Amino acid sequence: MTVADLLDDKQNVLTIAQRRAMKYIVDHSEESAFLTTAELSKKAGVSEATIVRLARALGLGGYPDLQRILRQEIQGRLSTVDRLAQAIRHAQNGSDICTQVLQQDIENISQTMRNISPEVFQRAVTEIDEAKRIYVAGLRGAHAPALIIGLYLRFLEKDVQLLVPGYGDVWNSLYGVGAGDLVIGISLPRYTRLTIEILEYARRHGASVGTITDSIMSPLVAYADWVLPVSCTMESFIESFTSAVSVANALVTAVSIRNSVKTMEVLRDREKIWQEKDIYVVDSLTAKSKKQ
Q1: Which of 187, 149, 230 is nearest to 200 (CA)?
Q2: Lower CB density within 10 Å: C or N end of the chain?
Q3: What is the mean pLDDT of the chain?
Q4: Which residues pair with 208 in a beta bridge?
Q5: What's phi and psi for 62, nearest 5 deg?
Q6: What is the DSSP string of 152-209?
Q7: DSSP string covering 250-274
Q8: For the whole model, what pTM was predicted?
Q9: Are residues 115 and 216 in contact, defined by beta-carbon separation less than 8 angstroms?
Q10: Using an 8 Å Cβ cutoff, are 99 and 234 in contact?
Q11: Segment 215-222 mean pLDDT
């Protein structure tokens, strides 16, 4: 879904003010993607209400949905070189890169909290807990949240497999996937083609499919039974997976609490193994307290 797609059959229903705002958005898409309604209305010479009504006239829930589409288009067409060039320009203008990136991630998490439905989140937790087998596909940068889900669900004695190219064959790993299984795909713009193909394959073979992605406009959504949308704005050559990692943490924690008695038993057994094999560093204060 692009802005051009939205405009195809909506041009004739827009008011003069809405068309003026839309023209500004189209002519300044990279800027508009990151402006508030107040900032955009001032630059376009219309009221804030016009911006809100414009988004609804385009069939969207509100202005944030229009922003997500604009950002998706930008991230999709900009190469890593282009995106780094933008960050360099901001740095040359005196921006504090550390503060800027941290603030972006704070906003990403805040936006993610607003976007995720508690009901959908609970459905995801239930399906993870009840699935016969779980497959997690997170490629490139998305491997970080995928690894968290896979690693810690194994701690909870779930049958989990990470689908990683180069570590075995993805399609051999998926052989036999079907009803009762759950496949989770994680991808943000620019989306990895293989992740989409994995979800399509899983859906076609009767498995349940969930996704952690940036919006309902993501190509992964077409194959998903549930979607956990995460905000990922980042002016850099990399995508921000901070919100995706937070959601992965939340999923694993919720699953562990859903079966708290079993979780405690499993973790006690694992703690014994970790202590026996001296896996973790024990600080001096902890060592002294144990001796006492």
Answers
A1: 187
A2: C
A3: 84
A4: 182
A5: 175, -175
A6: HHHHTT--EEE--TBSB-HHHHHTT--TT-EEEEE--SSPPHHHHHHHHHHHHTT-EE
A7: HHHHHHHHHTHHHHHHHHHHHHHHH
A8: 0.68
A9: no
A10: no
A11: 82
What the block records as the tokens of 193 is 């083609």
Residue among 158, 64, 157, 153 at smallest CA distance from 112: 64
138 bridge partner residues: 186
* Residues with Cβ within 8 Å of residue 79, at least 6 apart in sequence: none
Residue that is written with structure tokens 């239930």 in the block: 126
Q: Residue 69 — very low, low, confident or very high, per pLDDT cuts 50/70/90?
A: confident
Q: What share of the chain is helix, strand, coil (3-state, %, to 5)?
A: 65, 10, 30
Residues in contact with 39: Cβ distance below 8 Å, sequence separation at least 6, in sequence order: none
Instruction: Say how far apart CA 276 and CA 38 lie, in whole Å.
Output: 60
Paired with 136 in beta bridges are 162, 184
Token readout for 27 is 């002519």
Distance between CA atoms of residues 221 and 103, nearest Å: 28
Summarised one tens digit per residue, pLDDT across range 226-248 is 999 998 877 665 778 999 999 99
- Is 190's pLDDT higher than 70? yes
For the record, the structure tokens of 16 come out as 């003069």
